[in-house]
C-alpha cells in the first residue's frame, strides 16, 4: 500500500500524520548523527560529564538555559553545572553539543596554547552579522588579523586629548550626580561612556547625557538583548532574525551609522590626510578603505568593545564603594596626599593611587564584564583536561561544536584564587597578592588579547578618581522598590555581566557635605 494511503487509513488527518512522520525523521536522523559523533569522539579522548536531558535533542536543557537567563540565575546555574572534578560539562541541546568549562587549563588552551583550534566561527558570525558584520569580534583567520592590525594603532594608545574629552563628559555626568536625588548609576555611567567613546573614535559625541531622546543607544541595547538570547539558541537563532524581531532598532542603528559614515566618506582623501595626527578612527578607516560597510562594522565593534566593559565595571565599582566606606576613604586619602581635590589627574597621577587601581582590579576579578565567552571548534581536537571519572583526561571535541568558557566563574574559584572569600569584594587583598595569568585574565591572553586595556584602565580610573575628588560620599539607596533592599544583587548575563536590579545611589558633593 502507498505510504500516504497507509497514513490516512490510521484514522488521523493526513497533515497531522505527515507532521509526525517529519518529526520522527528529524529525531532519528539527529540520533544517528549523534551516534556517529560519539564514535568519532571516542577516538579523540574522554568525555566530560553530560548534563542529563529528559527530552529528545536536549530541548529541556535548552529551555532551562533560556529560563535561567531570563530569571537572572544563569551565573548560579553555570556554577552548579561546573561543580564536578574536571570543572567541565557537556550540554546536549538542539543543534549539537555545547561544552562549558571554567577549568583554567582549558581556558588557557582555548585562548592561547591551542588558539588555532578555537575560533569565533560561522555560527557567531551569522548571529551577529547585522551588528558586528565582518569586524574584529566576529572574524577569524586573515580577515581577523587585518582587522586587528588596522585597529591596533588607534586603540592601543591613548591620544593627548583623550582626558580632555573625558573630562568634558565627566562634568555632564556630575551634573546628574549633583541633582541630589537617588539615580540609577548604570544608566548615567553607560551614557557617559557612550558619549566619550563616540566623541573620541567617531569624532562626534552622541551627547546622550544632555539629550532627552537616545534613539541610537536604545537601538543598540535592543539589538544586543536579542543577540544574547540568539547566541544561546545557537542554530535556532535563524528563526528569530533581528531585522524582523528588532526591526525598529535595526533600522535606527543603520540610519545612525550610515549618516555619520557617509558624512566622512564625502570628504576627499586629501582633506582627510591633511588632519594627520588629528584623524579620528572613522577618518583613519575611511582613508584605508573608503567603504561604508567596512567602516560601519569596525566602528560598531569598537563601540561595543570600549563602552560596555568600562561602563559595567565602573557601575559595579560604584555599587561596591557605596557599601564600603572604608575603601572610599582610603582612595580619598591617597588623592588628598598626592594630587589633591582641585587638579585633575593625568596618567602619571593615577599611577600613585594604588587603592583605586586595586579596586578596579578587584572589580574586574569579581564581576568580569565579559564573564562568559564562546568559541567554535575549528578542527577535531581535544581540550587538555576535565574528562573521565577523575576529571583529568583530555576531552575530545569535534569541528563545528561550541565551547563556552566562564572567566568570571574561574576568577571566583577558591582552588584557583588561593583564598577562601572568593565572592567578597576586597581590593586590599591585592596589597599582598599578585595573581598569575591563569588566575586573573580580564583582558584575555594570547592572540585575541584586548586591544584597549590601557585605554580602558585609564577611563575607569580617571572617572572614579574624579568622582572621589568631587564627592564626599556615595550613598546606596536600595533598589527603589524593584526588590526588597536586603536582597543580594544578582548577576544578569546579557551578553555582558550586568546587574539584575537597578543600582540606585545618591552622590553627596564635597561642598555641601
Ligand atoms: C574593562 C575594560 C575592558 C575589558 C575587561 C575588556 C576585555 C576584553 C576581552 C576579554 C576581550 C576578548 C574577547 C574575545 O576573545 O572574544 C577583548 C577584546 C577586545 N577589546 Fe577589550 N576590554 C575592555 C576595554 C576595551 C576598550 C576600552 C577597548 C577599545 C578602546 C577594547 C577593545 C577591544 C578589541 C578591539 C578587542 C578584540 C580583540 C580581538 O578579537 O582580537 N576593549 N576585550
Automatic annotation (TrEMBL):
Chain segments annotated as transmembrane: 12-32
Binding site for heme: 450
Keyword terms: Heme, Iron, Membrane, Metal-binding, Monooxygenase, Oxidoreductase, Transmembrane, Transmembrane helix
One MF term in the entry's GO annotations: monooxygenase activity
Cofactor: heme
SUPFAM superfamilies, per database record: Cytochrome P450
Family label: Belongs to the cytochrome P450 family.
Stored PANTHER family: P450, PUTATIVE (EUROFUNG)-RELATED (PTHR24287:SF5)
Protein name (record): Cytochrome P450
Protein's organism: Zopfia rhizophila CBS 207.26
Amino acid at each position: 500500500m502507498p505510504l500516504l494511503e497507509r497514513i490516512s487509513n490510521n484514522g488521523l488527518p493526513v497533515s497531522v500524520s505527515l507532521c509526525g512522520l517529519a518529526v520522527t525523521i528529524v529525531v532519528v536522523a539527529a540520533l544517528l548523527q549523534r551516534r556517529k559523533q560519539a564514535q568519532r569522539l571516542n577516538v579523540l579522548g574522554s568525555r566530560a560529564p553530560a548534563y542529563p536531558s529528559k527530552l529528545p535533542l536536549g530541548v529541556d536543557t535548552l529551555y532551562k538555559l533560556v529560563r535561567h537567563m531570563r530569571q537572572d540565575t544563569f551565573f548560579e546555574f553555570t556554577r552548579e553545572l561546573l561543580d564536578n572534578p574536571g570543572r567541565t560539562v557537556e550540554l546536549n541541546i538542539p543543534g549539537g553539543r555545547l561544552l562549558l568549562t571554567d577549568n583554567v587549563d582549558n581556558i588557557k588552551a582555548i585562548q592561547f596554547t591551542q588558539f588555532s583550534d578555537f575560533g569565533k566561527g560561522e555560527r557567531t558570525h551569522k548571529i551577529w552579522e547585522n551588528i558586528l558584520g565582518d569586524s574584529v569580534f566576529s572574524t577569524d583567520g586573515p580577515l581577523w588579523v587585518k582587522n586587528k592590525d588596522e585597529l591596533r594603532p588607534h586603540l592601543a594608545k591613548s591620544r593627548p586629548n583623550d582626558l580632555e574629552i573625558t573630562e568634558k563628559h565627566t562634568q555632564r555626568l556630575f551634573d546628574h550626580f549633583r541633582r541630589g536625588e537617588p539615580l540609577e548609576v548604570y544608566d548615567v555611567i553607560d551614557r557617559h561612556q557612550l558619549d566619550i567613546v563616540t566623541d573620541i573614535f567617531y569624532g562626534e559625541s552622541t551627547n546622550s547625557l544632555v539629550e532627552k531622546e537616545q534613539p541610537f543607544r536604545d537601538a543598540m541595547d535592543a539589538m544586543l538583548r536579542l543577540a544574547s538570547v540568539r547566541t544561546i539558541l545557537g542554530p535556532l537563532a535563524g528563526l528569530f532574525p533581528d531585522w524582523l524581531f528588532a526591526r525598529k532598532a535595526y533600522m535606527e542603528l543603520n540610519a545612525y551609522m550610515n549618516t555619520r559614515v557617509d558624512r566622512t566618506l564625502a570628504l576627499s582623501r586629501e582633506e582627510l590626510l591633511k588632519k594627520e595626527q588629528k584623524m579620528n578612527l572613522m577618518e583613519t578607516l575611511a582613508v584605508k578603505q573608503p567603504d561604508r560597510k567596512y567602516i560601519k562594522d569596525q566602528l560598531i565593534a569598537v563601540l561595543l568593545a570600549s563602552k560596555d566593559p568600562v561602563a559595567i565595571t565602573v557601575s559595579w565599582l560604584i555599587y561596591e564603594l557605596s557599601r564600603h566606606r572604608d575603601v572610599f576613604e582610603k582612595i580619598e586619602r591617597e588623592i588628598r596626599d598626592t594630587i589633591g581635590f582641585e587638579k585633575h589627574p593625568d596618567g602619571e597621577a593615577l599611577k600613585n593611587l594604588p587603592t583605586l587601581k586595586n579596586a578596579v582590579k578587584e572589580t574586574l576579578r569579581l564581576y568580569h564584564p565579559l564573564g562568559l565567552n564562546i568559541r567554535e571548534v575549528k578542527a577535531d581536537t581535544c581540550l587538555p583536561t576535565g574528562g573521565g571519572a577523575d576529571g583529568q583526561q583530555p576531552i575530545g571535541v569535534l569541528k563545528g561544536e561550541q565551547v563556552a568558557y566562564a572567566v568570571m566563574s574561574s576568577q571566583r574559584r577558591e582552588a584557583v584564587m588561593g583564598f577562601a572569600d572568593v565572592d567578597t569584594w576586597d581590593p586590599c587583598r591585592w596589597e599582598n597578592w599578585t595573581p598569575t595569568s591563569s588566575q586573573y585574565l580580564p583582558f584575555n591572553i594570547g592572540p585575541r588579547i584586548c586591544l584597549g586595556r590601557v585605554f580602558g584602565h585609564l577611563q575607569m580610573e580617571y572617572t572614579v578618581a574624579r568622582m572621589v575628588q568631587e564627592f564626599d560620599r556615595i550613598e546606596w539607596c536600595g533598589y527603589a522598590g524593584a526588590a526588597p533592599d536586603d536582597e543580594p544583587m544578582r548577576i544578569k548575563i546579557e551578553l555582558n555581566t550586568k546587574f539584575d536590579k537597578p543600582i540606585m545611589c545618591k552622590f553627596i558633593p564635597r561642598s555641601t557635605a
